[in-house]
């Protein structure tokens, strides 16, 4: 089984400055993101969202706020006919030394515990930050960098472009 490990904020949905997130109630899907998820599914990828949510650990977003938002994210995907993806998130503050804050490899380790059958050699990472790039590098995964030129990987304009390029 091949997996597409996707960042959430700035990759699938719109991102905001840290201080604004507590007032964001509904996800705004980026242009082409829903079609990209469908295309990745058609190409045989198991979709796994890997997201840093350090605002929880840093007290800017409550766990309840995160959970409510995440449920709306999942519901929006369901309404589009998409299976709800597995979501692995890091709730810890930056600098807390946890094992799961990207670029630390913990979120993919968690995914591999749930799905040991994932073939890393055929899997990809898509994200809009160097943390995502570092996560991909930790497992030598193919990386697509949205809106920036990664030192190792392909620059793309959107998740949609990455989904089209993905083998
Ligand atoms: Mg991001
Ligand atoms: Zn963590």
TrEMBL record:
GO terms for biological process: carbohydrate metabolic process. Gene3D superfamilies: HAD superfamily/HAD-like. It is an enzyme of class 3 (hydrolase). Its EC number is 3.1.3.-. It is found in: Cytoplasm. Monomer. This is D,D-heptose 1,7-bisphosphate phosphatase. It comes from Luoshenia tenuis. The lineage of its organism: Bacteria, Bacillati, Bacillota, Clostridia, Christensenellales.
């Amino acid at each position: 089984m091949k997996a597409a490990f996707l960042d959430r904020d700035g990759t699938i949905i719109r991102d905001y400055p840290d201080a604004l997130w507590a007032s964001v109630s509904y996800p705004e899907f980026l242009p082409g993101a829903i079609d990209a998820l469908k295309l990745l599914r058609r190409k045989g990828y198991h979709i796994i969202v890997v997201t840093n949510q350090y605002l929880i650990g840093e007290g800017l977003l409550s766990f309840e706020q995160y959970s409510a938002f995440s449920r709306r994210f999942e519901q929006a995907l369901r309404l589009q006919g998409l299976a709800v993806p597995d979501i692995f998130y890091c709730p810890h503050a930056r600098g807390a030394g946890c094992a799961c804050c990207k670029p630390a490899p913990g979120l993919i380790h968690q995914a591999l515990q749930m799905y040991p059958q994932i073939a890393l050699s055929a899997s990809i990472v898509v994200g809009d930050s160097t943390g995502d790039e570092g996560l991909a590098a930790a497992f030598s995964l193919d990386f697509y960098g949205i809106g920036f030129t990664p030192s190792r990987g392909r620059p793309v304009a959107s998740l949609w472009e990455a989904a089209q390029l993905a083998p």
